[in-house]
Design goal:
- About 20% of the residues lie in helices and about 50% in strands.
- By secondary structure, it is of the alpha+beta class.
- A hairpin with a 3-residue loop joins β3 and β4.
């Protein structure tokens, strides 16, 4: 009986398994981490200007909301692991809590809670593609409202 000696395949097989073992956790760590960015915009009918940093969102803002003025107040980014909660402060003593949830492929799921002090204003789960953005019309602020730009990669 002729055939290959299976012992000759053992070293390449062990090397391949070690490669998979080393690459597996690194790949899992990348997919379990989500970079979350929260932009805070004040929209009002005082004036008619749009913050230059929002120029790429001009059409979207004007189609979704009926305000004449949009000003970017703040933008914060944080990397969060799946299940980890990040708190972002908002103007007026408010905050937004974001927790990435498990998702498959290029999708991201975020559990979002907007708080005003100890009072819950909104609890929802957002589903978006990595690199996508969701605009959420928020609570009143001064003579306008807050609009939250929630994005994740």
């Amino acid at each position: 009986m002729t055939g290959r000696d299976p012992r000759g395949l053992l070293p390449p097989l062990i090397a391949f398994l070690l490669f998979l073992a080393a690459a597996g956790p690194a790949a899992a760590a990348r997919s379990d981490s989500v970079s979350v960015e929260i932009g805070v915009v004040v929209a009002s009918n005082k004036g008619s200007s749009i913050d230059p940093s929002l120029s790429s969102l001009r059409a979207k803002l004007q189609s979704m909301f009926t305000y004449t003025s949009y000003t970017l107040l703040d933008r914060k980014r944080r990397s969060l692991a799946v299940g980890e909660t990040g708190d972002f402060s908002l103007p007026g003593g408010r905050s937004i809590r974001v927790t990435p949830a498990p998702a498959s492929g290029s999708k991201v799921r975020l559990a979002v809670q907007i708080m005003d002090g100890g009072r819950n204003l909104l609890t929802t789960t957002l589903g978006l593609s990595r690199g996508g953005m969701v605009l959420v019309g928020g609570p009143p602020h001064q003579s306008g409202v807050l609009i939250l730009l929630i994005s994740a990669e």
